[in-house]
């Protein structure tokens, strides 16, 4: 998962300022979840079944692999007539492709071949409902705090640049940004690698195999 944005902007403080650039985002997730229904599942969810084994003791395993590829080009220009009047024009073209593969495996409970049509339908509906709820929360629930943060930032007033302002257009900011991305990425993946492939190869290099 990651995104890259390249932008070109004009110096600040001019009568005409502009910004333009390209954006790319790739997101590939993998999830594996299990759901085990208990004896009270049907009654709690209001599911009418003649055979409690249609949903009781059923283990549902769901493996999902959603993939998102997004491309965008954007440009914006501001003409400052006075301190309180500014004309802004801009455009953005976005192309996004989403795909997902979801595999559901159901085991346990009564033998499906012994269930009635209504009980079998209830069993399948349980799978569809839980999967839809997981996809809805996983995809859209995380957007709410992001929009809240964006709205809060949009309300902030612009402060004129001063001697204490850290410029974001110079090489120092670029070095700090790239270094932060590399350090955070290393701290994210290194623990998993050290407990897996790296830990295995250290004894293998010493002539020990598992």
The number of helices is: 5
User: How many distinct beta strands?
Assistant: 7
Report the structural category: alpha+beta
Number of domains: 2
Evaluate the radius of gyration: 27 Å
Low-confidence stretches: none
Largest pleated sheet: 4 strands, antiparallel
The general outline is extended
Beta-strand portion reads: 25-35%
Helix-strand string: EEEHEEEEHHHH
Percentage of residues in helical conformation: 25-40%
What do the pLDDT scores average to?
Answer: 78
Strand order of the largest sheet: 1-2-5-6
Distance between the termini: 32 Å
Give a short summary of the structure.
With 210 residues, this protein is an alpha+beta fold.
Name the descriptors.
5 helices, alpha+beta, 33% strand, extended, 2 domains, 210 residues
Report on this model:
The protein is of the alpha+beta class and 210 residues long. It folds into 2 domains: 162 residues, no CATH class; 45 residues, no CATH class. Helices cover 36% and strands 33% of the residues. The protein contains 5 helices and 7 strands. It has a 4-stranded antiparallel beta sheet, with no helix packed on it. It has a 3-stranded antiparallel beta sheet with strand order 3-4-7, with no helix packed on it. The longest helix has 25 residues. The protein is extended, with a radius of gyration of 27 Å. The two termini are 32 Å apart.
